[in-house]
Design goal:
Elements (H helix, E strand, L loop, with lengths): L1 E7 L8 E4 L8 E6 L5 H13 L15 E9 L9 H11 L8 H17 L8 E5 L1 E3 L4 E2 L5 H7 L7 H13 L1 E6 L5 H5 L4 H7 L3 H10 L1 E2 L2 E2 H20 L18 H13 L5 E2 L2 E2 L5 H18 L6 E7 L7 H15 L4 E6 L13 E7 L4 E7 L12 H21 L3 E5 L2 H11 L6 E5 L3 H16 L1 H4 L5 E6 L14 H4 L2 E9 L2 E5 L18 H15 L28 H11 L2 H10 L9 H8 L1
Parallel strand pairs: 3-14, 3-15, 8-13, 13-14, 17-18, 17-19, 19-20
Antiparallel strand pairs: 1-2, 1-4, 4-5, 4-6, 6-7, 9-10, 11-12, 15-16, 20-21
Length: 623
């Protein structure tokens, strides 16, 4: 897969810059956000230069001779179909490369970021299982292995029998394994959705030209269609020349000229003749007659249809889209991104988008979110995991934090006013995983949204409460929203909705263990109050099994026995789900299961065989 790109001398990227595409694990969706001119679209365009020979847009202050674009590939060895003696050698060199002790700041700044990225992904991508290579083109479009390594690679491996042509072939083989489709914001819908376009054929995973050529060349009664055409034309030409020969005239071909018709000569005439009068329509209305927003939506609809219906592709697809939300209202923007999320979940497919629509933060998809800032002297990229992006909000620029909440609220209200739907807002991505398993499909049209902590749940609840309490706004709302928070050590007083008609739309509850039973109660100070989190309220047997599977995968020496008398896990109450008198074992298990990364793995591993009582409170609200 494509995991990053090294760029120098392209548009805003003057010095060597490493641009990551993934954050944690094999993210198949990469999202770039940032101000205008920061360099979001430049990333998508630069990759297009390598894959599709896009015109090079040089940085004004950079030397063309020093410019290059080198995508970074991570290729699983067990799935690799590339046969080239340079592959393993070059990959090993990239896995092992280190910056010299006294490097040039400009030349090595991007390489330092690449090495930092490389060491980070080693936690799940071991060199014994993956090839790791950065290869692309220089300003003359020649094969290039980054400014600091190109010459070294060429000279080092020459002694091992690797020629320059071997390295050229390696680049071609790697790039040939992928099909990169770039949809810029200014492209017309017709350019992409024309059946003859390379973009459309890429979505279909077919090369129309090659397929027609194959038909024309295929044997038929001992000869291909093209051969038959040439034979008939030869006879026709011979008859003409016989008539003209008496007066010394003849039709002949220069020695160096073409003497017969080839399949390629016929293909474009066939395509043009067949497809010239066939245009894409929506509800019997030509796409060209739709609004700009509807046309933009059609692009994603068609891409979604072809990509999600393809079970096995000839090449791995990378689809890059610049501002998919262009000309769309909030509700349509959400639907647009939901389709893109589904596209990125397909096998052999990767998606990269650049956007200004921060409403995408309302979903907890497995994606990498990259914020690009550019103060004209330096480009800085901060990467986040979209699955728990709200838990990293403190690292966001203030403008992103404010706009994301605004887009979040306005998007949710737009959706529940137009199409309805059910929403659960919870604190973290761990909570979402548990709720997904416990609720399963019992609540229709449900979106579970983790927002990174109790403060964000409360803030979102209060914003939505303003709309719900307004009688005119409330009449337009078709959906329901249920907010869930933990009971923290510090008491929190939250004013929920008062009127019955308001409570039917929006509620907020906190977890509470009382009298040995887990419940969801009003978030008020009075009454029984004991710090309680969602994990405390999980059935003991199911939580124990998930913990045991996770811990044995980390440290098989840790022995765990379940407390059969425990109904709930009670993780933060002396880990009641665990039976042991050995303090060392108890402390070791607690250390492992409270580690943030392990907590998430446990929540993914959790299997719900028992439905706790408190789930009925959630289901009753939505029923």
């Amino acid at each position: 897969m494509l995991v990053g790109c090294l760029v120098r001398g392209y548009k805003t990227y003057s010095n060597v810059n490493f641009i990551p595409l993934i954050k944690e694990g094999q993210h198949k969706l990469s999202i770039f956000i940032g101000d205008n001119g920061a360099g979001k679209s430049s990333v998508l365009e630069a990759i297009d230069v390598c894959f599709n020979n896009r015109e090079w847009n040089y940085n004004i202050g950079s030397k063309r001779s020093e410019s290059f674009i080198c995508p970074v590939f991570l290729i699983k060895k067990s799935e690799c179909k590339i046969s080239n003696k340079a592959l393993a050698l070059v990959s090993d060199y990239f896995w092992q490369y280190q910056i010299p002790s006294a490097p040039s700041v400009v030349a090595y700044e991007g390489m330092e970021k690449l090495i930092e990225f490389r060491e980070h992904i080693k936690s799940w991508a071991h060199p014994s299982d993956y090839y790791f290579i950065s290869v692309g083109v220089d300003s003359d479009r020649g094969t290039y292995f980054t400014s600091t390594l190109d010459t070294t690679i060429r000279t080092r491996f020459k002694t091992k029998g690797v020629s320059y042509s071997d390295l050229d072939d390696l680049k071609e083989q790697i790039f040939d394994a992928y099909r990169y489709i770039y949809i810029p914001v200014e492209i017309t819908t017709k350019e992409v959705l024309d059946i003859q376009s390379l973009e459309f054929q890429g979505l279909m995973d077919k090369n129309l030209i090659s397929e027609i050529e194959a038909i024309l060349k295929s044997p038929r009664n001992g000869a291909s269609i093209v051969d038959e055409i040439n034979s008939k034309l030869d006879v026709f030409l011979k008859e003409i020349n016989e008539v003209l020969s008496e007066d010394s005239y003849t039709y002949s071909t220069p020695v160096i000229g073409q003497k017969k018709v080839y399949a390629a000569d016929i293909v474009f005439s066939i395509i043009e003749s067949y497809f010239s009068n066939r245009t894409l329509q929506k509800d019997k209305k030509p796409i060209s007659a739709l609004s700009s927003g509807e046309q933009r939506r059609a692009l994603i609809d068609v891409a979604h249809a072809f990509i999600t219906s393809s079970s096995a592709r000839q090449k791995k697809l990378i689809i890059a889209i610049d501002e998919p939300e262009a000309s769309l209202v909030n509700k349509s923007s959400y639907e647009q991104f939901r389709r893109i999320f589904e596209i990125s979940e397909q096998a052999d497919c990767q998606a990269i988008i650049a956007t200004h629509w921060y409403g995408l933060l309302i979903t907890s998809q497995k994606a990498a979110l990259h914020h690009i800032s550019n103060d004209s002297t330096k480009i800085e990229i901060k990467s986040f995991d979209l699955m728990n992006v709200h838990e990293s909000r403190r690292d966001f620029p203030d403008s992103v934090t404010m706009k994301s909440f605004f887009d979040l609220v306005s998007s949710m209200l737009s959706i529940i006013k137009s199409t309805g739907g059910n929403w659960i807002i919870c604190e973290g991505s761990d909570d979402k995983n548990y709720l997904d398993k416990l609720i399963d499909d019992s609540i229709p049209d449900l979106t579970i949204l983790p927002v990174g902590g109790v403060a964000n749940v409360i803030k979102l609840h209060n914003y939505l409460k303003i709309a719900v309490e307004d009688s005119s706004e409330r009449k337009l709302i078709k959906g329901k929203i249920f907010c869930l928070i933990d009971t923290d050590a510090s008491r929190i007083e939250i004013t929920g909705c008062h009127k019955t008609e308001e409570k039917k739309i929006l509620q907020i509850k906190r977890f509470q263990i009382e009298g040995g039973e887990a419940r969801l109660v009003e978030p008020i100070n009075n009454g029984y109050y004991l710090p309680t989190v969602l994990e405390d309220c999980l059935p003991s047997v199911d939580y124990f099994d998930a913990c045991k599977r996770t811990i044995q995968g980390i440290d098989s020496s840790v022995s765990m026995i379940r407390n059969k008398l425990s109904k709930y896990a009670m993780v933060n109450h002396d880990m009641d789900f665990l039976k042991t008198d050995r303090i060392r074992v108890r402390n070791k298990v607690k250390e492992l299961i409270t580690n943030p990364q392990n907590k998430y793995i446990i929540s993914e591993s959790y299997e719900a065989t028992i439905t706790p009582f408190w789930i009925s409170t959630v289901r009753d609200f939505f029923s």
